[in-house]
Amino acid sequence: MRQRSCVLFLGSVFIATGCLARSGGAPSPENVDRDRAALVQAADHFLRVFDNLEWEAFDAAWSSSRSVFFPFRDTPERVEGADVATRFRRLFEEVKATRPGPPYLRLQPQALRAEVRGNAGLVTFTLGQRPGDVGRRTLLFVRESGQ
User: Fold this and answer.
1) Could you tell me which of 124, 109, 113, 114 has the C-alpha nearest to residue 34?
2) Of 7, 86, 101, 9, which is closest to residue 53 (Cα–Cα)?
3) Could you say which architecture CATH assigns to the domain 6-142?
C-alpha cells in the first residue's frame, strides 16, 4: 500500500498528515525513532515532488483542509480550499515555462530537524544560499483519517 501524506502549505509552514505510529501512552524510544524516520521520509517525498513540480503527487499530498499564506507579493492574503490548488497550479506553470528541470525549484533543505509530538510531527529546515537569505520552512504533519 502506498504511503500518502497530506499537506497544507502556510507560507513558510506546511501542515501535512504523515505516517506516525498510534500510541496509547508515552511512546517508546523505538516508536519515536520509527516515527521520526517516517516523518523524514514523508518530508523528503513532499519536497521531491514539489521540487520536480509533479502536480498529481503534489496535489494528492494535501490535507482536506487547505489554507496557505503564500510567500509571494502577488498573493498576500490567506488562500483556502480549492483556491490553494489553483494558485499552486499557476506557480507550477510559471516555473515550468521559465526554468529547465526537473528539478525545477532546486530546493536544497539545510539543517533539517524532525520532531514527533504525539499524533503530530514537525520538520524544520532552511532554504536559500545567498548571504542574508532567510528561508525558514516548517512542515507540520498531523494524523488525518487514520493516516
Assistant:
1) 114
2) 101
3) Roll (3.10)
| Residues 92, 128: Cα–Cα separation, whole Å | 19
Give the integer Cα–Cα distance in Å for 30 and 27: 8
Domain boundaries, the chain: 6-142
pTM attached to this predicted model: 0.76
Q: Determine the Cα–Cα distance for residues 128 and 107; give it in Å rounded to an integer.
A: 8
Find out whether 18 and 39 touch, Cβ atoms under 8 Å. yes
Place of cell 494524523: 143
Q: 109 preceded by cis ω (within 30°)?
A: no
pLDDT digits (tens, 9 = 90+) for 99-126: 998 999 999 999 999 998 888 889 999 9
How distant is the alpha carbon of residue 39 from its chain centre?
A: 11
